[in-house]
Each structure stands twice: as structure tokens, then as C-alpha cells.
């Protein structure tokens, strides 16, 4: 039988592979040329092997379409699974075999856990190794290394290279870090095979290879009664190549190759390198011992002249660089054929990936306008594919994306990730609110009820929260906030009634009860069993998903629910073999699991449109094909750098080099580029960085330019312009600066001295805050900063002054530090920030007490946080001004001293100068008038800003100079004039433009949108 001629065929890339294959089988031209037409019932005895499951489904549809006029049974169509790890189901691929004595395969997670344990054991035995130290820092590091080692082992298994060759790599004179890595790989060489043997298991790839080789041996010894055809495989895996070798020499066997180039000259064929698309087929033919000239071309008579020209053009584009000097000859001899080759082949280079996605979506949308026309996007770039799907959604077009969506990106996967993120952050405000905002989160309440309580809790408890996050303290924090509501609190919080507060208290209690177990795992972060962590995760998720009616939990429903079931089912099945994990390591691990599992919908949203990856697109054709993401580094992808073995070591070990992947990507491009209507797209920028078109596109352009056909690939329609037009709002009309002029009756009649300062510096902010009644919310991830530092110092000095209103205590500095420490603990819970701030507090206390001793000698009364109210006549109308003075001292000469504490830079003290604030001068007017509670009217002899910076020195006194009475009168007069202006209904509350404002943003910049129109003012000034 081995002396029989090989039955090897090829289908040109310009023909639909699966349809042509089905046609040739049904017309009796396979497995032998001019054979009998198979009977409709006899096909059940035929076997057709194709590379992937998707190719098997496509061939099934091709048989259905080709034989639609009559009923027939289909052959057994099975995937070989010789392309990637997702296709290793060889038990069903090669069905019909007798019982084989082959050990079962180890599950992927089980292997990862096994390798992780071996890694940790090695690290414990090699404590001086830097790699060992990195591994021992966290179990998660061992799991990541185990995943990477699994990829390395698969490479050895795919190429059927024994792990024992690793020992041969130690002979070279290596740098220390490479020797360290090779020493680590001894775990893989020695301990891993032994551990597998002890379990009675083998690797999944090993088992697949063993099954394929067993099938090859069975075919050699007992040829099947029915025909067997292997179609579309390039035999990139040695075991598959051996199977193809046996099939092609069977009396009723045949091998059908995809897109073998029979027109390439022999010199080029001899010099193919691994990056060439024909390299894999050349290696396969060498293994089959079949000359390229002995391969039969199928359906050549059905190919069009345009298809032949395109095939020739793509072949020349891929010509090996060693013979590229022949381009000159063929360009000279076949210039006219280039025009035919480029018909239906177009290239669009978009400015960026977003525009590229828009263009692709438009092309796909147009293709669907023709009834029955199919269109597919082929791209390895998942980001581009997602953008195209999003753009197609604007026309309500759901697309069949063969790669699916990562489980993490589905609502179910996102919910599980949000839960673990919140727990890992100890339920800090932002991740907690993200979890509560997810529609799956119910906590036994109606969704509307939970949303309302969550919003109240967010504003009243979580925003501006400076305490270290801790779910156990959440209820106590809520009650503390409720008791401490004062004039500093947000206006919304000040107006919350008891019912609203009760909702907040109830929700904090529910969350604490439902999530306590999961939260405790993260707060302790003690190593735990992966099974226990996964079960706690599931219990927490199911608990907070529960509705008040106890409806079915949505976590396990639908396609995503099935994928989640597989993820956690595998964790529970194999988790006992995982090394103990800290909760933080578990959070990182489970998110990697969620992102690595694809969810593929079982239904096809639209039968005529699809998005395929390179693997899925092999052997599948469409009327319109779009090759997207044709940029270097994307298609082809950059050659992966093996973290374990460098190129010389891989070569020594007889492992495939990274360039082999480029050759496979080139073959995919060459196959798809020969379609009838092909659009090729690339981007000039990817993620804001310059990008270049793929090398194959540049070769095409070079050939056409040499032939004088520079524009042959240019699209005739303005696709980029149309794409931009989808989001073009039309003529841009910049908004004018807002000039709100509310009725006089709506304007404020009562302001504090700080609000008056705001009215001067930010009129629009006054309008938003006191007329529109808007108030900025504090951040959800509030960090203690300058504001909190100022509050701390103010409270501590107020407490100290009230506690010691007369003479200072004996150890005044220690007493002040005690007051600061007490307030400090209530405001700052971050140990790092406390360590940073405390030396500043010590310097403030030392400087303050030194000045206070002198001041206490000429003062008889000391008042802190004095409230005052005064009426001002404004054009016959009363205006109320209020203030809270940081400190007022009555001196021995019955005059007053006003002090305003500043922990930041104090304002200018000279009226009319830049940065001047009338705050102290207005407070002086109130003090002279006796407007402060408990402080009798008296002249002001001293007023100063006390800057308490905590630097060196710890503070600085910045006194106001001049006659304080006159300064007070001038300030009141200026205020009256300002208020008279705003009593005019035509006076607007203007936005301070860029040239007049400080560097810091104002609270309502987003509302005034000043950046949209500020340039107009500059243009007017220039004019």
C-alpha cells in the first residue's frame, strides 16, 4: 500500500474551499479523479477530516447547499484539532477507533496547579536565587509562572520533542540569569514528568498526538472500507503530518491542501523561509515525499481569469527576498495582468483605529444591502473587532463573532469581577458603589429600593470618607456621620430626614451581614484553600443576587452562565491541588480565568455577516471579505519572545522558532486576499502611537508603483470621509460665554464672608451655588489633603483654646500636641499619611506655643470659632453678612485682635492687589460693631493671617497693616458697591476667564464650559 501513488490535491485560494470540496466529493472527483458519483446513502461511510470545528460546520453547510435539490446523508465530518489548544478534542475527532491503552489527559487547571506546587518546592530549595525570591513573595507569582511553563511544555509536546533535551542546554557558557532560568527548568525536565506518571496522566497535547499517531498506524494496518479525506490541514504538527502521510496513500484516501502555489518558480520554492506562507506546505510535501508537480489542482477550469491574476499577484507579493530581483521581469512582461489582479482588491489606510472600525462597519453595512450577499471581517485584533461590533450596533446589526466575548465582558462575568474587586479593596467606596450599581445586585430588595438606598449611602457616608475602608465598620461610620452633621456637611446631607438615614443604616447592616464571610477572607489575607475561596465567592455572589421574591439567580443562566459554571466547576474539581492562596492572589487569579474564557452565543444573530479571527477564518469564504488590522505588530503579530528559552536554545532543542507563526499568518493573508471582493484596512495610529502597514501591503504597493499603477488599490468611494461623517455634528457653533442674569428676587440676600470672597473671584460659582442651589460632591476615593489638614489644625486649635481660655498649662506644647493627636486620629486613618503629617504637626505646635505665650500676656479673653451676623444697607435693602472668626482675643487695652488660621498660602493683605481677600477686613467691621456672639464691641488693634505650614519655621504671621477701622469701612463700602451692582437685574454673574483665574479649577467649570469659549475672548482681544 505504501507504494501506491499519493492522492494529494489542492484548491486554489481564489475559490471557496469548503464549497469546492463538497462539490468535488458529490461529483465523484474525490478521493480519486473521475471516480463514481457517490450514492446519496453511501456518504455515511465516508470520513472527512478538517482542521477546526468551525471548518467542520462550514463544510456541513456546503454539503447542504450543494445537495439542496435532493435528500442525502452526510459524511462523518470531524475536526483534526491540529491548530491550537482549543481544538484538542481528539477522542471525537478520530472516532471509530478500538479501545486504546492511552492514559487520560491532565486538565489545564490541574496542570497549572501541579506546576505551581513544583515551582514553590523548587523555590524553597533554592532560597538564594532571585527567581526563587520573586516566586516566594506571592503564590500568585507561582501560578503565573505555571501558566507560562504550560505554554512551554505545549511547545515541546506539539513538536514532539522530549523534555529531556533541556539538559543539553546547560553545556553552554551562560550568564548568571540564564543559568538560573535553566536550573529552574529542571523542574519541568525531571519532576513534572514524574508527577504526571504518579497521577497516571499525560499532557493533553501528548494524548492528542498519541491518538492521531495511533489512528495513522491503524490506517496503515487496516485501511477503512469507506473513503477518507483530510482537507485543509497544513500538517503543522508532526503527528498530523504522519496521519496525512498515511491517508494520502490509501486506495480510497486523499489529502486536499489549501492554496498550494504551483506557479512559483523552483528557485523561489527552494529558498522559502519560515515566514513565507508556503513554507508549511513545502515541509508537509517533503514529509509526504510528494513532489509539488505531482499535486493535482482542483477546479482550475472553474477559476476566472481575474482569480488567476489575483492568485499570481499575491504569489509575487510573497516572493522570497532571495529571488525578488525577478520582480523586474514579471512587471515588464505582465503589466496588463496587474490591472486584472487588482480588480475587487482595495486598500484603505485610516488615520486611527476608531476611523478604521467606522470604515469597516460601513463596508459591511453596504454589503448587506444586496440580498443574499455575505460579508466577513477577518482580523486578529480583538480590540478592532469589538469596535466594529459597537459601530454595527448603531444600525441594530448583531454580528456573529466567532471568537466570542471574554466572560469578563459579559454582565455575569463583570458582576463576579466587581464583587472580588470590591472585596480586594476591602469594600472601599468606589468599588463598593460599582458593585451596588450592577443590576444583579439586589441584596433581597427591589432594585429601585436598593438603588435609592445606595445613592443615599454614597452621598451621606461614602463620599469624602477618609477612614481606611472596612466593611465591618461601615455601619458604625454611617451612624458617626449621622451624628456629626453640621454646617460643614453637604447641603443634601443636612436636609436628610430620619427616614433617609434609616435606609442608609439598614443597607449598611445588610451589606455587612451578607458579605462578612467574603470580606473577612480579604481582611486577613491568610493563605486558604482555593476551593474554600471559590465557594465563599459563589456564596457571596448568590446572596447579594437574591431578589425579595426569591426568583432564580441569574448567575448561571444563558451562554455566559454556562461559561461561568464551567469556570467554577473546574475550580471546585481541581482546586484542592492548588497551593494555598491569599485572598488577594485569588482575586488576581479568578479575574484571569474570567478574561480567558470566551462566551460564544449558540444562535447566529445575522446569517450573512460575521467576524472571524485568523484561526476561525481558515477555509471559510464570503462574497465580501475585509482584512482588518493589517499593521505590523498586529497582522502579523510581533514574534513572541520566549521568557524561558532564547533563540539558540530553541534551535538546539529543535523547537519551532517564532517566525513560524508569521508564516501561518502570511498564509491566512494570502488565502483571504484572493477572494472576489477584498478590502484591506490599516491604521496610521494605534493607541495614539504611529503604526505602519503590514509588510505584505507595502510589497503590493511597491510592485504596483514600479508598474506605474500607484493608485490601483485605492478605494473609489470616500469611505474615510463617510466614516467621519457618521459622528460629525455638522457646522460647529462655539457656545457663547454664559451670562446668567436671574431676577433680583432670586439673588442671595445672605452670604458669609467666604462666600463674598467667592462672589468677587468667581461670580458664576456664586450663581451656581446660591441661586441654582448646586453643591459639589466630594470624591468617592477622597484622599486626605490640604482641606483635611486645615480642618484638623482648626479643630485642634479651637479645642485647645476652649480648654485653656486663660493661662497656658505648664507643658503647653505637649498639651497642644495631645489635642492635635486626638483630632488627628478622627481625621487621618492612613498610617503612611499620619507618619508624613505628624512631624509637621510637631513643628506647628512648637511655633504656635512660642507665639501664644507672648499673646497670652496682653490678652484677657480668648474666643475660638466665633459666629457673627451683621445687617448691611444696600440701596435701602437689608443684606445679611455672617462669619465664623477663627479666633478673637480681647487685649488688656480693651481692643480686639483677629486671627485667621491658614494652613496654605494666605491671601494678599493690601487692598486692590492681586490675590487680596476682604475677609479679615469684613470681620473687623463686624467685631467693631459687636456682631460676634460673646464678644463686646471694641476697636480692632490687630488683625493677621497665621500661616501654619509645619515647615521650618512651623508658622508665619502675616499682619494687616494700616488703620483697621478705615480698612473695615473701605471693605464695607466696596461690598455695598458690589452688592448694588448685583441688585441690578441686568448685571450677570460672569465666568472668570482663563487670563484672570488662578491655576486651580473652580467647582463649576464643567457647568460654565469655559474651555469651549475662552479662546473666543482671546481672539477678540487680539482683534
Account of the 3D structure:
The structure is a single chain. The protein is α/β, with parallel strands linked by helices and about 1000 residues long. About 50% of the residues lie in helices and about 10% in strands. Strands 3-2-4-5-1-6 form a six-stranded parallel β-sheet. Strands 7-14-13-8-12-9 form a six-stranded parallel β-sheet, sandwiched between helices. Strands 17, 18, 19, 20, 21 and 22 form a six-stranded mixed β-sheet that branches. A hairpin with a 2-residue loop joins strand 15 (about 685) and strand 16. Helix 17 (about 410-425) runs antiparallel to helix 18 (about 430-435). It is elongated, with a radius of gyration of 39 Å. It starts with 7 loop residues before the first strand and ends with a helix. Residues about 80-95 have low confidence and may be disordered.
* CA-based shape: elongated
What's the N-to-C terminus distance?
A: 94 Å
> Average pLDDT across residues?
88
Oligomeric state, counting identical vs distinct chains:
single chain
Helix content: 40-55%
Count of individual helical segments: 39
CA radius of gyration is 39 Å
Main-sheet strand order equals: 3-2-4-5-1-6
Percentage of residues in DSSP E strands? 5-15%
Largest sheet: 6 strands, parallel
Structural class: alpha/beta
The residue ranges in which pLDDT falls below 50 over 5 or more consecutive positions are: 82-94
Number of strands: 22
